[in-house]
Amino acid sequence: MVYIRQIFNLITMKQFISNVARNLLLLSAFSFLLLFAGCNPDCCNRTLITSDTPAVSLPGDGGDEVITITGSINWKVVSHPYWVTVTPSKGTGTMEVTISVQENNTNKSRSGEVVIVADNGDKLVIPVSQPKAPKVYIAGTYYEVRHQVPFGYSLWLNGVLQPSLPLSTPMLTGINSIFVTKANEIYIAGSYDPYGDGEGNAAMLYEHGFGTALSTGSGTFVSSIYVANGNTYVAGSNGPPTLWINGTPLSLSARYGMARAVSVTETGVSYVVGELYDYEKYRYIAFLWEGETEYMLSTYSGSVSSVFVGKDGSVYAAGEETDEEWKTFATIWVDKVPQTLEADIYSYASSIFVDEKNSIYVAGVNNGVATLWINGKAQTLNTENSSASSVYVTKEGTIYVTGLIGDYPYGIPVYWKNGTMYVLDPNSYCIGAPILFVVE
After folding, report:
1. 178 and 125 in one domain?
2. What letter does residue 240 receive in the DSSP assignment?
3. Neighbour-count burial for 99-108, b at 16+ CB within 10 Å, e otherwise
4. Under a CB-based contact definition with an 8 Å cutoff, are residues 276 and 307 in contact?
5. What is the rounded distance in angstroms from the CA atom of residue 72 to the CA atom of residue 63?
6. Left, alpha or beta for 380 (phi > 0: left; psi -120 to 50: alpha)?
7. Are the C-beta atoms of 288 and 333 separated by less than 8 Å?
């Protein structure tokens, strides 16, 4: 009897296991059928959408970046910040997409997300960020061409003409150099008419809306200003090359000459470049002054227009060298060592800038046209008579150059942004070389 019961239990157990196995098999088959019944055959073989760029960061003054959307499925852009444009906004499979932003004039950085959704519900989110736009100041002085006397100026901010600065005593009639602090305080080395008859030209400092005469008579000239550690440095000429520090003149030499540019380190060391006249050889010689220590730069003759102190403490200068046949060559000096730029004869360099990667940018003239040199290699900015006078490169790599269209020293004021030219005043033909200052 016991034996029969054991046989019965064994048969019952086998039936139970068989039933469980059959049910599991049916469940798997049912799930498989449900999977394919609820899936579009066209989408089941498609991959998810991805991007080759996880995040996009664009310059404050505007720009675009091309990214690649990868996949084999229909997709479209469903949302993006109002200041972002996405082109195209929809597509199929792998495509290039351009994300563009305009200049950020909100005075603060901004960020957002571009959201792309595919037909199968897959979602791709691409963060986009943009710092605030730099403030690009450009100033030009109007000259009475016959006597080369300044009689007015224009000041542009980000390409827009600004109202005249508050009147000062003496009255500012020309801007030769500008410096703007991060607090938007404007300092100008300029000129005024000491006699009030429209024929004089004397040096003055303009700061916080107030003017300070650096001389009482005509014949002085200022060409550069720099503000550091609360002190104001102005380079020019009062007969000999002169550096005014907080309005007090310091003659850099007993000889006749001109100080054309000044830069000051955070520790207060001033670097001034310019030239002295050699009465025995009847020519100008280029010089650098470190503090009050004088160094001759040119071997035969030359002049220097710009100086820049790099992050590593190297001192860069730009100008021209003249040989014994009076041919001029655009030249830079790095720690007083000359380097001739790629140029034809009768070329010159007006401005120099060195970025954080130690790439060297130089603006000037080569073969009669505005030219930008990057690490010694020339790039023509224009095809007609023109000149480039100032250069600046932002941290994001945007290159600004100012200049003139027409025969130097007068013409139509323009600027180039990454090689694209913009006209500042199409109706003016009597502006001297426009100057540039950028606040980031």
Report:
1. no
2. S
3. bebebbeeee
4. no
5. 29
6. beta
7. yes
pLDDT < 70: residue spans in the chain: 1-47, 144-148, 198-199
Q: Which residues touch 146 (CB under 8 Å, ≥6 apart)?
A: none
Residue 146: what pLDDT?
61
Model confidence, pTM:
0.83
Residue 394 identity (one-letter amino acid) = T
Residue 16, pLDDT score = 42
Establish if 94 belongs to a structural domain: yes
Q: Where are the alpha helices (DSSP H) in 254-411?
A: none
Strand partners, 59: none
Residue 36: its pLDDT value, please? 39
Q: Are residues 69 and 210 in the same domain?
A: no
Of the chain, the end-to-end C-alpha distance in Å amounts to 100
> What CATH number is attached to the domain comprising 223?
2.130.10.10
Judgement on whether residues 142 and 110 belong to the same structural domain of the protein: no
Domain assignment present for 243:
yes
Same domain, 304 and 211: yes
Task: Give me the residues paired with residue 315 across strands.
Answer: 309
Please indicate, yes or no, if residue 2 is contained in any of the structural domains. no
Per-residue pLDDT at 298: 93
Query: Does the residue 25 lie in any domain?
Result: no
Same domain, 87 and 69: yes
DSSP 266: T
Neighbours of 145 (CB within 10 A): 11
List strand residue ranges (DSSP E) for 71-201, in order.
74-79, 84-87, 90-92, 95-101, 110-118, 123-130, 135-144, 149-157, 160-161, 174-180, 186-192
Alpha carbon distance 265, 277 (integer Å): 28
Amino acid at 55: A
Question: How many domains does the chain divide into?
Answer: 2
DSSP state of 323: -
Is residue 294 domain-shared with residue 415, that is, in the same domain?
yes
Query: Which DSSP letter does residue 214 get?
Result: S
Domain of 234, in residue numbers: 135-439
Could you identify the residue written with the tokens 């006699």? 195
Question: 9 CB contacts (<8 Å, ≥6 apart)?
Answer: none
